[in-house]
Amino acid sequence: MFNFAFSAAHPLTGYGWDDGFAESFTPFAGQGFVPGRIVRVDRGRVDAVVPDGDSVRTVLADAALVATGDPMRVPCTGDWAVIDLENGRVGDHLDGVVRALLPRRTAIMRSTSSKRSEGQILAANVDYAVVAVSLAEALDLDRVERFVSLVWESGAQPVVALTKADLVADPAALGHLVEDTSAAAPGVQVLAVSAATGDGLDTLSALLTGATSVLLGRSGAGKSTLANALYGADVQHVQAVRDQDGKGRHTTTTRDLLRLPGGGVLIDTPGLRGVGMWDAEAGLARTFADVEELAERCRFHDCAHDAEPGCAVQEAVENGELTVRRLTSYRKLLRENQRIVAKTDARMRAEIRRDWKQKQALGRHMMERKRGAGAVRRPGR
């Protein structure tokens, strides 16, 4: 039996295991189960690293028991799981079964493009989320603000990596790009990095050492190349971006958790074409802290920052303190977030009403059965 308390000698320590997760695992420790960190999810099955003596091994486990209908509760790369290694199905080449997921500390979520307004978890139990933005194309600050808002909301620490920095030959121009990005993401460290030259990699590597990190960004942002550079070997396959539009080819198709040689783990993710807001009010407030602070000075507490008298936000735009682009982005993301929250609330209310009606129908059915049974017994008295 393993001692699952945190210690430098514990086999899962290098994957992020600590006292907190050990405490969460306590109710399962006496049942013959082991903890494991999910390193990959594929069609209802997961690859997970589990203790194996003083080392670890990777097992394939069935996740059907925890794959609920709620997309926000399904297993995700980065999750810590309770794994039963005694009941794997040999015929299916399975080593075990996932019995439960330990509570998540952080979860990066987005809304999908589905008309049902469903959410999707991109990574779990993450300390740092590195938003990769390629400098091979025009800098899209709106996208930076969108990603950073979702990361703040998750509880993780965002970091912005301006990749392919070697393509910007002028140091002054590169400096301006870093400054503009920093203005769009206050309180977030922005690094210009190049996998080709190695610039900025030491700083990023030192920041991520000993932590769980995830790479986020659109296709072609250089996430897999950056993962290889941080790992020090070609562990992730990469492809060239399309010449006509600079977009990637979705080289990474699954979310893979890699253990870094210097300590810590890194989750590489597929490129994201769309990243919708998902109940990210607190994250938006932190990303747009400058706008929120200005709004507090407005004459009216419900100021729409349009044409109201005494609007501190519009005054800041007029005097150049706040850009029109940033205010427009703020309004757009707020509206989008409000819509998704309203749709989600409406869906939850509909589910509650449906459950209530089902319970009512079941109650009526039981009453009818009871009355029918009474009618049958009555003549025999």
Please list the strands of the largest sheet in the order they lie side by side: 10-9-8-11-13-12
Distance between the termini: 63 Å
Assembly state of the chains shown: single chain
User: Please, how many helices?
Assistant: 9
Rough shape? Answer: flat
Query: Helix amount, in percent?
Result: 25-40%
List low-confidence stretches.
Answer: 1-7, 239-252
Q: What would the average pLDDT be, to the nearest integer?
A: 85
Strand percent estimate? 15-25%
Q: What Rg, in angstroms, do the CA atoms define?
A: 25 Å
Overview of this protein structure:
With 381 residues, the protein is α/β, with parallel strands linked by helices. The chain is built from 9 helices and 13 strands. It has helices at 19-29, 141-154, 171-184, 201-208, 223-231, 281-287, 289-295, 312-318, 324-377, and strands at 34-42, 45-52, 55-62, 80-84, 96-101, 107-111, 119-124, 128-134, 157-163, 189-192, 212-216, 256-259, 265-268. It has a 6-stranded mixed β-sheet with strand order 10-9-8-11-13-12, with helices on both faces. The longest helix is centred in the last third of the chain and has 54 residues, at 324-377. The radius of gyration is 25 Å and the shape is flat. The N and C termini lie far apart (63 Å).
